[in-house]
Amino acid sequence: MAQFSGTFYSEALTRKVPFTAIIPTSKELERHHQMYKPEFSQPKRTIYLLHGWDGANDDWVFNARVFELAREHNLAFILPSGENSFYVDHPNGNHYGKFIGEELVEVTRELFSLSTQREDTWIIGLSMDGYGALRNGFKYSDTFSKIAAFSSRILTKYEAPNREKLEDNLINTRLKAIIESDTLADLSDENDIYELALNRSKNQEVYIACGLSDYLYDENKALHEFLLENNIAHEYFETPGEHTWDFWNEYIEKAVKWMNANK
Question: Span 2-259: which CATH code?
Fold first, then answer.
């Protein structure tokens, strides 16, 4: 297994940014699977794996079985740093959405032997980055063919409670700066999950999961119902669980298996 941790200069963010890449090697795959397959040496299917609030690009490395999943499914994982950004383009010129949806994909494909095909390019996130995975997966639907999001913060102006003034806390302070308002009623269409889901340019496979005891459960349930009402195909799972790594570890394994089915 090859693990790379480094930086590259981001035009979208106008600075060097850290990232981690996990890429199984052909010889290791042969040993693990006890056979040779031609696809072991071909460009890799790739999952862009986003971290949550207060996290960093190595969160998934320390808290989940990403090495084992990469080896078991012959996948590359690319883990960027999102810096509490919600992975959107900020009014101050920090274009985190463009960084994820365009630049990171372009640079990592250049650096590593990754597939350039849409059907081989996927995105996963949890909590804040569950929103980031949905937002950028939908917005850049020409790039990402599959999305998985766990325990996601769902930003939309559609739901009535979201028209109320945002409470004062660290996360909402960041949101207010992004929205340039103190209410999600002023959220732009390009950051509204419901609007983005309706206006994707291509069909996608979407996987959503949330624990029944998660404080974001109602938001995820509402998104599920919205997608059903608008005939947007997706997989939805609600099972016992909270906003914890125990739940996310269970579902990343399920989601990766789902993404990699019939491959």
Answer: 3.40.50.1820
